[in-house]
Every structure is written in structure tokens, then in C-alpha cells.
């Protein structure tokens, strides 16, 4: 078991580094080159933000 723990302490960072640099990094680069920004809305689209200043206070008295 001690040998297995030692081997896992060595191979796990190598495997995770390989996954990061061989799978996740190229995927991110391709997505940046091909697609638009994922968190921005198209021009003229308001999105999901709710403007709280337009809500009258009388609707907030009995919420539950």
C-alpha cells in the first residue's frame, strides 16, 4: 500500500497536467478563435438582469 500511495503521488500530477495541457488548453484556444465571447449579450439585448429600481415598494410587503 505504501508503494501504491507513492506511485499515486507521482502519477496523479503528471496525468492531471497532461489532461490540462492536451485537452483543456486546446479546447479553450479553439473556442476563443471560433466563437464569440460567452458572457456578453448581443447588441440591443438586455439579458437577464432585473432592474430593481422600477419595482414599487408596495409589492414587497408580503412576500411569503
Key words describing this protein structure:
single chain; 64 residues; mainly alpha; 52% helix
Report what the structure shows.
The protein is mostly helical and 64 residues long. Helix content is 52%, strand content 0%. It is built from one helix and no strands. It has one helix at residues 2-34. The longest helix is centred in the first third of the chain and has 33 residues, at 2-34. The chain starts with a helix and ends in a 30-residue tail after the last helix. The mean pLDDT is 80.
**How big a fraction of the residues is strand?**
under 5%
Q: What number is the mean pLDDT?
A: 80
What is the radius of gyration? Answer: 25 Å
Question: What can be said about the biggest beta sheet?
Answer: none
Helix count equals 1
SSE blueprint and pairings:
Elements: H1 2-34
Write a brief caption for the model:
The protein has 64 residues and is mainly α. It is 52% helix and 0% strand. It has one helix at 2-34.
Amino acid at each position: 500500500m505504501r508503494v501504491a500511495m507513492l506511485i499515486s503521488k507521482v502519477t496523479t500530477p503528471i496525468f492531471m497536467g497532461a489532461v490540462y495541457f492536451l485537452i483543456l488548453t486546446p479546447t479553450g484556444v479553439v473556442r476563443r478563435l471560433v466563437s464569440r465571447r460567452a458572457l456578453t449579450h448581443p447588441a440591443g439585448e438586455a439579458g437577464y438582469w432585473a432592474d430593481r429600481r422600477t419595482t414599487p415598494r408596495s409589492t414587497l410587503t408580503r412576500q411569503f
